[in-house]
Write a structure and sequence with these properties.
Radius of gyration of chain B: 14 Å
Strand order of the largest sheet of chain B: 1-5-2-4-3-6
Helix content of chain A: 25-40%
Helix content of chain B: 10-25%
CATH class of the largest domain in chain A: Alpha Beta
Strand order of the largest sheet of chain A: 5-4-17-16-15-6-7-13-14
Structural class of chain B: alpha/beta
Strand content of chain B: 25-35%
Number of strands of chain A: 19
CATH architecture of chain B: Beta Barrel
Number of helices of chain A: 19
Structural class of chain A: alpha/beta
Order of helices and strands of chain B: EHHEHEEEHE
Shape of chain A: globular
Number of domains of chain B: 1
CATH architecture of the largest domain in chain A: 3-Layer(aba) Sandwich
CATH class of chain B: Mainly Beta
Number of domains of chain A: 2
Radius of gyration of chain A: 24 Å
Shape of chain B: globular
Oligomer: heterodimer
Largest sheet of chain B: 6 strands, mixed, barrel
Number of strands of chain B: 6
Distance between the termini of chain B: 29 Å
Largest sheet of chain A: 9 strands, mixed
Chain lengths: 468, 118
């Protein structure tokens, strides 16, 4: 980090440059941004994309109170006490979010979920959750983005639009870089975009294939058949996919002729009818292609540390999302223990929402139920979720004010280099204090003969039932 | 009977910029509260940019302004809207055992309406 002090008067805020700062807005997690910082404001973010620039330039210190209880200013201590009371008194608490905070904070959050026997879910369930299910069913032929940069000569984006969601994907990782085995960069790579609409990303492609809506599964299985040399009926393929068989055959020929093929896929597959079955088909096609050449498949992850959420929840519970801890051991069942379902079925009676905004993007039944129960929210900014929270913490922004670790979309952990300090507490600090208070409350509520705070599950302790 | 369309909620860079500026600010609110319609569908319903439509799914209904999609971006019969409150109101809660509601590519009907009284 280089710091340059200005010649201005003492009243002028210090001017400094933070080199190689990390942008945590999207899953690209670009760690080569040079920030010009003036006091509590970032005035320039060199090399950042349009989203990264907006991220850095719009996260100065928020002047809201660090804690609101029922919309009224309160101390952080009062907020921690109220939050702990809500969580320990709940019979079915939901913990949700976690994709825009550090892995250190995620780790503590999972501990709290364990203590209170919560249903634990992350934003993965409503982005690449179906991909997580498919990885478990099929397996994942994968690589790092560095390998894509140095080797990838056939880059296929399926149901993904990085030109709008990950603007530096092309220039930093997948298309433009001159790599070890693709020395001419873009000239050495073929780019294919497959989507139902002609997105901005399609303008970058050498080949754009416009699918009939809701036909991803059929198209992927047509390609699997072609990979295996199975003859297909042209009229049927056209009717099923909206694309001529000759187009698919040409694509397959190019895929087989490539040296290192890469599928990047997005929510065009996971959010559309078929969901995990669509992703399974793509993973199976990737596996099939390895009989002919080298091929890998990667999800384009959205939030800055959603990949970290998957990693942390997996290494703490054994499962990446949708985990229920009520019995004192983890159970995984998407559809049963995922946040959208738990809320829409009106099962949760309290919630703790960390770094996400379900009040903006969940279904109406889920949102109505969340609105009806006491919940705690963490966010650097005011959102529809913080507005309805019983306890709302205004927190410091990870990567800008808070150090720590995040995982890039290819599971590479990257350290953060904060730009300036903030008077709001970090997620990690509040979560650590909530965990401590939750432990105290559970110990107080447990009968004396069972008063062993090392025993779990917490719910059994609270109910006076000895853990087996 | 109203014609059926397929709606694709999705991400846009303006929506991403708006999230950073604040979800109650103009950039985000204006981006999520407009429906993109193909030129062909605009002509068929005699719509112009800024006109209002009522969009109805199996699970909800919204009234929203329209604008023409960029030339060639949307085929006839396909609608696009940036993720946000409006798109969520059309989405069902059932995740079919996956945890993920069907958030893209579901059927809706669309009809032209008069602008709501302010």
């Amino acid at each position: 980090m280089a710091t340059v002090t200005t010649d201005a008067s003492q009243q002028e805020p210090e001017l400094k440059v933070v080199e190689d700062a990390t942008c945590t807005f999207c899953g690209c997690v670009c760690d080569d941004i040079d920030l010009t910082v003036k006091g509590h404001e970032i005035t320039k973010a060199k090399r950042a994309c349009v989203l990264g620039t907006a991220w850095f330039l719009n996260h100065s210190v928020d002047d809201r109170p660090s804690c609101l209880i029922k919309g009224q200013p309160a101390s952080v201590e009062e907020g921690i006490e109220r939050a702990s009371q809500i969580l320990t008194k709940s019979r079915y608490p939901l913990m949700y979010g976690l994709s825009d905070t550090t892995s250190e904070a995620q780790r503590v959050a999972v501990s709290i979920a364990d203590w209170v026997g919560a249903n634990l879910d992350t934003t993965t369930s409503v982005c690449h959750g179906p991909s997580g299910m498919a990885f478990q069913g099929v397996g994942e032929v994968t690589c790092s983005l560095g390998e894509v940069r140095n080797r990838g000569d056939m880059i296929i984006f399926w149901g993904a639009n990085p030109a709008e969601s990950h603007p530096r994907h092309f220039t930093r990782y997948s298309l433009m870089p001159k790599g070890m085995f693709v020395p001419n960069g873009r000239k050495d790579r073929t780019c294919v975009v497959i989507d139902v609409r002609k997105t901005k990303s399609a303008n970058t492609a050498d080949i754009f294939i416009q699918l009939k809506p809701r036909s991803d599964f059929e198209a992927l299985w047509a390609l699997r058949a072609l990979a295996a040399g199975v003859e297909l009926e042209a009229a049927q393929v056209l009717a099923d996919t909206g694309v001529e068989l000759a187009v698919w055959q040409d694509l397959m020929d190019r895929m087989k002729a490539s040296r290192f093929g890469v599928f990047f896929f997005g929510m065009g597959l996971t959010m559309t009818r078929g969901k995990h079955a669509n992703t399974e088909a793509l993973l199976e096609l990737t596996r099939d292609m390895n009989r002919h050449t080298r091929f890998v498949c990667k999800p384009n992850r959205g939030h800055g540390n959603v990949t970290g959420a998957d990693n942390v929840v997996a290494w703490r519970t054994g499962y990446p999302f949708g985990v229920n801890l009520a019995r004192g051991y983890p159970r995984f069942n998407p559809g049963e223990y995922t946040a959208s379902d738990v809320l829409a079925r009106q099962e949760a009676d309290a919630a703790i929402i960390i770094a996400s905004d379900p009040m903006a993007n969940f279904s109406e039944p889920a949102r109505q139920h969340l609105k009806s129960i006491p919940y705690i929210a963490f966010d650097p900014k005011e959102t529809p979720t913080t507005r309805h929270a019983e306890v709302a913490f205004t927190v410091a922004t990870y990567g800008i004010n808070v150090p720590g670790t995040v995982y890039r979309m290819d599971d590479i952990p990257i350290s953060l280099r904060p730009a300036f300090e903030c008077h709001h507490p970090a997620d990690l600090e509040i979560l650590q204090r909530i965990e401590k208070r939750v432990q105290e409350l559970i110990a107080l509520e447990a009968p004396a003969e069972n008063d062993n705070s090392s025993l779990r599950p917490a719910r059994d302790l609270a109910n006076g039932v000895a853990a087996e | 009977m109203s014609k059926t369309y397929i709606i694709i909620p999705g991400r846009t860079s303006q929506q991403g910029v708006g999230i950073n500026e604040g979800k109650f600010e103009e950039t985000y609110q204006s981006e999520i509260s407009v429906l993109q319609v193909s030129e062909e569908d605009m002509a068929e319903l005699e719509l112009e940019a800024g006109d209002w439509v009522r969009v109805t799914s199996e699970h909800g209904q919204i009234e929203i302004r329209v604008k023409a999609a960029k030339k060639g971006e949307l085929p006839a019969g396909l609608l696009f809207i940036a993720y946000g409150d409006y798109s969520s109101r059309l989405m069902g809660a059932d995740t079919h055992g996956s945890g993920m509601p069907t958030s893209k590519g579901f059927d809706v009907t669309m009809e032209k309406i008069a602008a709501p009284v302010e």
